[in-house]
Amino acid sequence: MIIRHMNEQDIEEVLLLEKELFSAPWNREHFLFELNENPFSLCLVGIVEEKIVSASCAWIIYERAEISTIGVHKAYQRKGYAKKMLEMIHHHAKNNGVNQIFLEVRVSNQPAIALYEYFGYKVSKVRKNYYSDNHEDAYEMMAEVKNLVK
Ligand SMILES: CC(C)(COP(=O)(O)OP(=O)(O)OC[C@H]1O[C@@H](n2cnc3c(N)ncnc32)[C@H](O)[C@@H]1OP(=O)(O)O)[C@@H](O)C(=O)NCCC(=O)NCCS
User: Fold this and answer.
1) Ligand 1 center to 109 CA (angstroms)
2) Of the chain's two ends, which shows fewer C-beta atoms within 10 Å, N or C?
């Protein structure tokens, strides 16, 4: 898989991926904001055979980062692609002086929780009623950059 920065021409394909994976997918305006207006945003796509199979955005805000979305096309899951995307985000975070990385994940999302635990993220908080679509709770997970599994 080749990982590169997302650009505006990728958005159509990324939206299809979002719809496949998420019950509350991001829309075009959301990605346009991330690409054009949010100075802290890092959005990446993973390409296999000229197809976007993975997308992820993170916010790198001085010494703190937040992973805002990550997804891998269903047909390409369990091949290590999410690990590769996260490794790239971790690399950018380290190079920009980030100390801690945060994210939120649905408490029922065992595959994602297992992925984050693999790198050393730990649950730091439970956010009650976090998701507006089904009122599910979120785990806030956090990793110290210096402790991340490479
Ligand atoms: C979570 C997600 C991104 C993982 O992508 P992936 O490319 O399949 O993950 P990887 O192949 O890199 O797996 C890395 C590790 O994560 C864990 N993992 C991934 N999928 C798993 C599953 N279905 N069950 C249990 N553990 C899983 C494993 O520890 C795995 O390592 P292993 O394969 O050596 O056991 C993918 O399932 C996805 O897109 N889900 C829908 C969107 C989503 O929920 N995103 C997260 C929002 S917070």
Assistant:
1) 9
2) C
Which residue has the least CA distance to atom 20 on ligand 1?
Answer: 111
First to last CA, the chain: 18
What local confidence, expressed as pLDDT, does residue 2 receive? 98
Q: Are 58 and 68 in contact (CB under 8 A)?
A: yes
- For a mutational test of ligand 1's pocket, the pick from 48, 85, 101, 115, i.e. the residue with the most ligand atoms closer than 8 A to its C-beta, is 115
Those residues of the chain that have pLDDT short of 50 are: none
| Global pTM value | 0.97
3-state secondary structure of 149: coil
Specify the pLDDT at position 150.
Answer: 77
Domains of the chain: which residue ranges?
2-147
Q: What distance in angstroms lies between residue 85's CA and the mean position of ligand 1's atoms?
A: 11
